[in-house]
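Worked example 3 (structure in, sequence out).
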């Protein structure tokens, strides 16, 4: 990149900000990772089995990572579809962790309820069916397990390290497993509010905004910890880089298709070029964007990092309709957890 741009870029502090293992694997071109791919009712599911060696390459712990990618949950039918798929995959992880039907679960909703993009955890806790009081009074029905749930807030408000707070709760309640929900950050516009990640490796609270704290994990507590997250924010570098990529694709698509008779009847701004098969054309990219067009995706992000970071403009951004979408996403996660934990609940 130095020859192309006539100078060297200082990248010692540069990392592509993402909490998604799938994106880390893609961005670092990690090969020989065991993955299983399936598409269920137009929802893409990727199960990644990350070993210790590859985990070190992308700064992720070894374990199972399940990534569910979908288009929309604001439509009722789509919401039900994603919820069912999510619930079934959560059952898969519960089985992998040898969690029995009657084992008690503690559900933790991380995040700040006063900040909408960070409120996934607290909003989800509101949807959890809490059954432990019924057990204590001897009224818990067949097909329901003991469940406790809490949203501990954030360290900046409580003054208590989140990981320590959860340990206190575990010591007091003595559950057999923990499920923790948190908002994440994505390295792609396309995956914001459209992706669920589940893993048996736990989580580091605050990592999505670059404020990584003590982890919440099986190694720390001695019981299985299942982490569930949805990327709700993306940084400015990613937005600009993805926009450049979309400009390149749209330009190549227009050149290849503008003479086709069927396209004479379609307004240019109505064509969804992202769904078309477009091979990258370096000459088109250079023609459109000059020197920048000759850079690959990683080099563009590296350049943007150098441009935006020194002036403090690498903002974390969330979509404008986040309030409505977060309510729907928390419904998917909360009700999906209920389905997975209580066999008496059918839908």
């Amino acid at each position: 990149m130095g020859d192309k741009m006539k100078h060297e870029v200082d990248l010692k502090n540069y990392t592509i900000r993402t909490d998604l293992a799938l994106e880390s694997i893609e961005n670092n071109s990690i090969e020989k990772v065991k993955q299983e791919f399936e598409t269920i009712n137009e929802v893409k599911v990727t199960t990644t089995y990350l070993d210790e060696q590859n985990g070190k390459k992308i700064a992720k712990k070894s374990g199972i990572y399940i990534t569910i990618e979908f288009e929309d949950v604001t439509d009722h039918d789509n919401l039900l579809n994603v919820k069912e798929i999510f619930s079934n995959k959560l059952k898969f992880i519960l089985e992998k962790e040898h969690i029995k039907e009657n084992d008690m679960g503690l559900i933790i909703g991380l995040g700040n309820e006063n900040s909408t993009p960070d409120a996934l955890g607290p909003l989800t806790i509101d949807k959890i069916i809490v059954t432990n009081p019924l057990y204590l009074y001897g009224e818990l029905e067949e097909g329901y397990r003991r469940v406790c749930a809490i949203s501990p807030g954030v360290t900046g408000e409580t003054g208590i390290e989140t990981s320590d707070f959860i340990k206190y709760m575990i010591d007091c309640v003595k559950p057999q497993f923990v499920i923790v929900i948190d908002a994440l950050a994505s390295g792609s516009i396309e995956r914001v509010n459209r992706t669920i990640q589940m893993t048996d490796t736990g989580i580091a609270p605050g990592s999505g905004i670059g404020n990584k704290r003590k982890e919440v994990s099986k190694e720390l507590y001695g019981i299985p910890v299942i982490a569930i997250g949805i990327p709700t924010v993306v940084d400015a570098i990613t937005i600009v880089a993805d926009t450049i990529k979309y400009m390149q694709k749209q330009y190549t698509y227009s050149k290849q298709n503008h003479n086709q008779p069927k396209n004479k009847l379609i307004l240019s701004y109505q064509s969804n070029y992202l769904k078309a098969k477009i091979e990258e054309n370096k000459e088109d990219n250079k023609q459109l964007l000059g020197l920048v067009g000759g850079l690959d995706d990683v080099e563009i992000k590296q350049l943007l990092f150098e441009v935006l970071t020194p002036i403090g403009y690498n903002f974390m951004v969330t979509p404008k309709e986040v309030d409505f979408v977060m309510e729907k996403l928390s419904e998917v996660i909360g009700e999906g957890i209920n389905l997975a934990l209580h066999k008496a609940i059918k839908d």
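Notes: Residues 95 and 101 are 10 Å apart (CA to CA). The chain has 13 helices and nine strands.
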